[in-house]
Amino acid sequence: MNAFTSLFRRPVALAAVGLSLLLGATSCTSSRVGVTSDYDHSINFRTYKTWSWYPQQTSDAEGGPARGYQSFLDKRMRTAVETEMKKKGLTYTEQSPDLYVAYNAKVEDKQQINGGGFGYPFYGYGGYGMYGRGPYGNVTQYKAGTVIIDLVDAKRKELAWRGQGQAQIDKNTISEEEVYRIVGGILENYPPQDGTNVNARR
């Protein structure tokens, strides 16, 4: 496996844990997007003007029964990314782009522990109760949509920037509205504010 393809197999468990802590177990319409990002601090990101899709991007992020066509989630992802990249002033091209864009999107079952307690009474909407019986408190089950977006320097074949976003969702797939919300939240952090150093290499 070469270094280029191995970029997308790096562990992101710690980032996922951090994002899950940012999410509330409220309804999807009110939950915020937890976002993290990291980047190569030696790069002047203002020099990037054009982009294209990573050549080895899978055509079906949802793992459908066949290949050669895009799932609904992939179509939503690509449309959302294209919209956000255009807002950033980056032009799509298939000829010698400055950046390659790759992504991964998935839905996971999550748990949130609300408070602790050992059966002490509390006053809630229905009066006094034992809402936290047990040492771990009340556990709420919910689904979270996680999106990772990688920007790869096409010339150097190295990862330049990675953003990850996660939000609570209602179903087993990420809806069009939710995709736009998560992708917009991730790419809001691009370019990094201190990634404009004119003395940086690129």
UniProtKB/TrEMBL annotation:
The keyword Signal applies. The keyword Lyase does not apply. Residues 35-192 form the DUF4136 domain. Keywords: Signal. Residues 1-15 form the signal peptide. InterPro entries: DUF4136 (IPR025411). It comes from the Bacteria. Coiled coil: none annotated. This is DUF4136 domain-containing protein. It comes from Hymenobacter qilianensis.
